[in-house]
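Give me structure tokens for this 171-residue protein.
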Amino acid sequence: MATSILRCKTCREKISDRYYAHENGEIFCCYICFLKSCPKCRACHTYMEEWIEYPGKGKFCNRYCYEGYTGAEESQKELNSVLRGIAKHEVKETLNNFISTIYNNSKEMLTLIASEGKEKVEKDIKEINRMANSMNTLSDEELYKEFKTNEGKRRIAAGVLLKKRGYGKKA
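Here you go.
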């Protein structure tokens, strides 16, 4: 009579006399293989034994990960709509609106800092200060060239955030 060889669901190794059996009937050679078969949290990307599923949003390890993920997603949508609006209006007026929007929405500012990187932003502080101080002396065409790229818009927004938090000030 032939005996069936049990194999780990994740790594396909032969199961010895010691194994990890899940309550749903799946068998794994170890706990790590079991975790690798579990879904990852959509926000923090950790493997989860237990999770909360939000319809249309995915699986999250806890409420805080869900709130953080959806908050960042919403602020990115708002930021994208602000960036799209820059091309449609007069450059100086739009830039001022963009900066005031950034001042009023800390989630957008945190998203910008996270995407830009603190070291790069600190490196560009002098340039951002120069741009902010010389805004009135630049022509509309020069301003448009400076801020028509997403990188330029992100740099000025990140600079506004860092100024608000006290970076870039002389000691």
